[in-house]
Amino acid sequence: MDNRNVLGALFMLPAAAILLTFLTYPLGLGVWLGFTDAKIGRGGEWIGFENYEWLWDDSVFRLSIFNTFLYTVVASIVKFALGLWLALLLNRHLPFKSFLRAIVLLPFIVPTVLSAIAFWWIYDAQFSVLSWTLMKLGLIDEYINFLGEPNLARASTITANVWRGVPFVAICLLAGLQTISPALYEAAAIDGATPWQKFRNITLPMLSPIIAVVMTFSVLFTFTDFQLIWVLTRGGPINATHLMATLSFQRAIPGGALGEGAAIAISMIPFLLAAILFSYFGLQRRKWQQGGSDR
Amino acid sequence: MATVKLKQVRKSFGNTEVVHGVDVSIDDAEFVVLVGPSGCGKSTLLRMIAGLEEITEGEIYIGDALVNKIAPKERDIAMVFQNYALYPHMTVFENMAFSMKLAGCSKQEQRERVDEATRILGLGDYLERYPRQLSGGQRQRVAMGRAIVRKPQVFLFDEPLSNLDAKLRVQMRTEIRELHQRLKTTSVYVTHDQIEAMTMADKIVVMNKGNVEQVGSPLDLYDHPANQFVAGFIGSPAMNFLKGVLVTVSAGRAVKFATDRILPAPASAEPDGREVILGVRPEQLLINTLASGESPSTKPGSDEATARQSSVDFESGVEAKVVVIEPTGADTQILCKLAGNDVVVVTRERHTFRPGDLIRLNVQDGNTCLFDPMSGGRL
Question: What is the CATH number of domain A37-284?
Answer without folding.
Answer: 1.10.3720.10
